[in-house]
UniProtKB/TrEMBL annotation:
Residue ranges occupied by any Glycosyltransferase 2-like domain in the UniProt entry: 8-154
The protein's name: Glycosyltransferase 2-like domain-containing protein
SUPFAM superfamilies: Nucleotide-diphospho-sugar transferases
Signal peptide: none
InterPro entries: Glyco_trans_2-like, Nucleotide-diphossugar_trans
The species this protein was found in: Alkalibacterium kapii
Domain of life: Bacteria
Single GO molecular function: hexosyltransferase activity
Amino acid sequence: MSEQKLVSIIMPIYNAEEYLRVNLETIAAQTHTNLEVLLVDDGSTDQSAVIAQEFCEKDARFRYFIQKNQGAPAARNYGFRESHGQYALFVDSDDILKTNAIELLYLVAEKQDADLVIGQYDTIDEQGMPLETKKMQYEKDEIYEVDEHLDTLFLLSPMPGNKLYNAELLREKDLFFSDLKRAQDLNFYLKLLLYADKVCTLSDTTYLYRIRLNSISHTVSPVILETIRSVEDVEDFYRQNSRYDERLFKTLKFKYYADQLAKIPQIEDKKERKQTYDRLARELKAIKRESVLERFQSKKYSIVKTKLMFPLLFKSELYSWIQTAKLNRRDRINRRSHE
């Protein structure tokens, strides 16, 4: 058997003391052992630094860095610049990497000479208990030539934690995470697809994504409009590289802007709800049914267009309260079902 190539695991850390230790333990126990683990402390004020440094002291594969608080994209970029692996994987500090994840992803990457390998992910709650399985759009192992299947790959989840990247390709193309407050994962993933030749997907679960109700990514505010800036940046990137596909980008916008539209009732401030709705509604109204891919032209398109006919619903205090109560109730049910 040939010698294992080095895989770099980059982890931004910010006030994750409650979840960090179990995360690092699963990384230390990976069945693929040729690793370097770059822990980038993004200005934590809790005990995260103590936990991270403890692992560095007992395992030479772990390295600790600290930066002034700048957000996860900057921390990932810092870690990647310090990395040396032929492959890279970006893990969030509150999630969990399955102990055989790197081995599963790496073997496929080597066998298929893939620029990106994507595993399944499941969701867990704050206590680490499983929530409803969040399966991707595939049920079996697949090999995709990017030029032939860009429409499929374009709409997969951009989450980085379940993806093994060809690090040498990232360095060659100078690809880094953009300084966005939202949808930076989407931005990075789509730019990588522009340069990738082959992408493989696995039916095996490699990553456990933790749903935290009070986390930045699940706190709803007008910052969700950053999704528009992210998509438009990628759109310009594809135009500049002569790979722009209008229908694909119309579909992308419809998919992600509709997802953000559904979150608007959770914005507490009435004025901010109105401003966010007005911007998203303007974007969605400009997307015609025939301009998106066929699979988005039926039920979902009709539902979104129907919602846009009732703007006052999204702006009302009552509907906001109902939606928030509904989400809280669903969370309580999920918790009770796993007790």
